[in-house]
Amino acid sequence: MTEHLGTYQLPPVQARVARLVEFYQTIRAHVIASETEGFISPAGLYKPNVLLSTSAGRTTWTITRK
Q1: Cα–Cα distance measured from residue 29 to residue 60, given in angstroms and rounded to the nearest whole number
Q2: What's the predicted TM-score (pTM) here?
Q3: pLDDT at residue 55, as a whole number
Q4: 3-state class (DSSP) for residue 40
Q5: What angle do CA 62, 20, 58 make, to 5 degrees?
Q6: CB contact at 8 A, 16 and 10
Q7: Cα–Cα distance between 23 and 25 in angstroms, integer?
Q8: β-pair partners for 46
Q9: How far apart are CA 54 and CA 58, in angstroms?
Q10: Is 37 helix (H, G, I), strand (E, B) or coil?
Q11: What pLDDT is recorded for position 66?
């Protein structure tokens, strides 16, 4: 998108895009970890570990707000 707008060479735009990529990668890693550390419920359903996915949002939000 930044290439289309012609703003990809501006340092503030590059920094913001880098932070968005970091946010995406962090959330993705936490989702994968949450799915990997899941368990089978008493009803026989596989449930991801929600503690990992919940902490991902808090951690990432703190990182991106700086």
Answers
A1: 11
A2: 0.64
A3: 61
A4: strand
A5: 25
A6: no
A7: 6
A8: 40
A9: 7
A10: coil
A11: 54
Number of residues that make up the chain: 66
Buried b / exposed e over 28-63, threshold 16 CB at 10 Å, is: eebeebbeeeeeeeeeeeeebeeebbeebeeebeee
> What 3-state class would DSSP assign to 39?
strand
Domain residue limits, the chain: 23-66
Give the pLDDT confidence of 7-61 residue by residue, as tens digits.
888 999 999 999 999 989 988 888 898 889 889 999 999 998 888 766 655 655 5
16, two tokens: 């913001």
- Rounded-to-integer distance, Cα 59 and Cα 52, Å: 10
Pair 33, 59: CB distance under 8 Å: no
Residue with tokens 């919940």: 54
